[in-house]
Design brief:
The chain is mostly beta strands. It has one domain: Sandwich (Jelly Rolls). About 0% of the residues lie in helices and about 50% in strands. The protein has no helices and 11 strands. Strands 1, 2, 3, 4, 6, 7, 8, 10 and 11 form a 9-stranded antiparallel β-sheet that branches. Strands 5-9 form a two-stranded antiparallel sheet. It is globular, with a radius of gyration of 14 Å.
Length: about 110
């Protein structure tokens, strides 16, 4: 498939995530510089701190759920669209969750 990059999740290794007990997999496409995807796994009780988003971000809750800020609940199947430069979080998952984030600068 010319011009298409195919990445298999099972072939990527888990690395340290954005919080103490989280882990993530990163996916970069040589044909799409400035864009990448993350799988982020939050174990039960984990929190991601409030932060400024340096890129545009589309998040999708694949499994589990999390709450944001003052308690907005994001169950499995939720999309979250975050504009570049905005501040969001903290995100907390009482039962754990798996989140897909796609980040880009266009």
């Amino acid at each position: 498939m010319d011009g298409v990059d195919v990445l298999v999740s099972e072939q990527a290794e888990w690395i340290q995530g954005p919080s103490a007990r989280s882990r993530m997999k990163t996916f970069f496409s040589p044909s799409m510089p400035g864009a990448f995807a993350l799988l982020i796994e939050l174990p039960p009780g984990e929190t991601l701190d409030r932060h400024e988003e340096p890129l545009f971000e589309i998040g999708y809750i694949l499994k589990g759920s999390c709450t944001c800020g003052e308690g907005a609940e994001f169950p499995q199947g939720t999309f979250v669209f975050t504009p570049k430069g905005s501040v969001h979080g903290p995100f907390r998952s009482e039962r754990g969750c798996l989140l897909l984030c796609v980040k880009f600068d266009r």
